[in-house]
Design goal:
Layout: E1 32-38, E2 44-49, H1 57-68, E3 72-77, E4 81-87, H2 91-99, E5 112-117, E6 123-125, H3 126-131
Length: about 130
């Protein structure tokens, strides 16, 4: 008779499962999320999350602050890692900087998700905005 109790193991029903082994798999492609948040009145914040750790976030912030003529900071979060926060609506400029091979980071455009919040607070991707 086995002394192990099988139903005390933790199981996440929402995790992706590999069909062959039953073990959970992690997505290999990580996205860079660019979001905008309304502060007060017409003031907005642009947040950039998911920049790979091989890049120095402090140097990126220094270059971006000078090129975009805005202020910014790096916020450390336990779930999201290091998040770059910029003043103003800098979505298009930061996307160009991330994908530019000459003066920017040269990242793939498919790994960048630009999120636009409408008045209801729901997130719309830029591709959804172009279609409508």
């Amino acid at each position: 008779m086995s002394t192990e109790i099988e139903n005390l193991k933790t199981y996440d029903p929402f995790a992706e499962a590999d069909e062959d082994s039953g073990k959970t798999t992690k997505q290999t492609q990580e996205y860079i999320h660019i979001r905008i948040q309304q502060r007060n009145g017409r003031k907005t914040l642009t947040t950039v999350q998911g920049i790979p750790s091989k890049f120095d976030h402090k140097k990126i912030l220094k270059v971006v602050k000078k090129d975009f003529a805005c202020n910014g900071t790096i916020i450390s979060d336990s779930e999201m890692g290091e998040v770059i926060q910029l003043q103003g609506d800098q979505r298009s400029k930061i996307r160009e900087f991330l994908t530019d091979k000459d003066g920017g980071l040269g990242l793939d455009d498919k790994t960048i998700k630009v999120c636009c919040h409408n008045l209801l607070g729901t997130c719309l991707l830029r591709s959804q905005l172009i279609l409508s």
